[in-house]
């Protein structure tokens, strides 16, 4: 009986989550199997989350630190307070993006992800990232256009924090320390 109730609760949660994305009217990419997003959709996703916070993580297929820290990002699920969503920075039509999607799915089939809209951010990865990072970085944070960023958004749609390499003192080994010092205190 407990098993059946667990299955039913899971199905209900999945349907609520699907309805939330319908509320945001997020388009599917014609080039890849992913949602197309911009800052407005990112905010809508956070506002319609069933959890109090949403963490968006920027990723490219070729970014070694992005891939290295992805398991640490998945650990945030254990808090029970965040939804995780990966933001693919490469162009929808970039052939390398399939590698990023395969990487995400190899680590977790349940992680939601989307790709930055080509029509809004262009197709050059560096320029796309710079434009996106500039618009999502809160005014009290320095704009640093690196990859592997965490963007913490609360249920009201307020962007609370955007990380950069400076937050982990330029040493990728300090990534967990950065999570513990910068992100976890904000979601407690």
Automatic annotation (TrEMBL):
Keyword Amino-acid biosynthesis: no
Residue intervals of the Thioredoxin domain: 7-188
Domain of life assignment: Bacteria
Molecular-function GO term, any one: oxidoreductase activity
InterPro entries: Redoxin, Thioredoxin-like_sf, Thioredoxin_domain
Signal peptide from the UniProt entry: 1-18
Keywords: Signal
Protein name per its UniProtKB record: Thioredoxin domain-containing protein
Organism of origin: Paenimyroides baculatum
């Amino acid at each position: 009986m407990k098993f059946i109730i667990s299955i039913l609760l899971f199905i209900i949660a999945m349907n609520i989550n699907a309805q939330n994305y319908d509320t945001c009217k997020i388009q599917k990419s014609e080039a890849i199997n992913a949602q197309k997003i911009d800052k407005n959709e990112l905010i809508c996703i956070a506002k319609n989350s069933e959890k109090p916070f949403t963490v968006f993580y920027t990723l490219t297929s070729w970014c070694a630190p992005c891939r290295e820290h992805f398991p640490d990002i998945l650990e945030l699920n254990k808090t029970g307070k965040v939804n995780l969503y990966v933001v693919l920075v490469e162009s929808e039509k970039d052939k390398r993006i399939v590698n990023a999607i395969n990487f995400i799915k190899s680590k977790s089939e349940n992680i939601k992800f989307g790709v930055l809209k080509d029509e809004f951010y262009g197709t050059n990865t560096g320029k796309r990232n710079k434009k996106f990072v500039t618009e999502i970085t809160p005014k009290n944070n320095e704009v640093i256009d690196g990859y592997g960023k965490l963007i913490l958004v609360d249920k009201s749609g307020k962007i609370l924090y955007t990380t950069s390499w400076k937050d982990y003192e330029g040493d990728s080994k300090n990534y967990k320390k950065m999570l513990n010092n910068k992100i976890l205190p904000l979601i407690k």
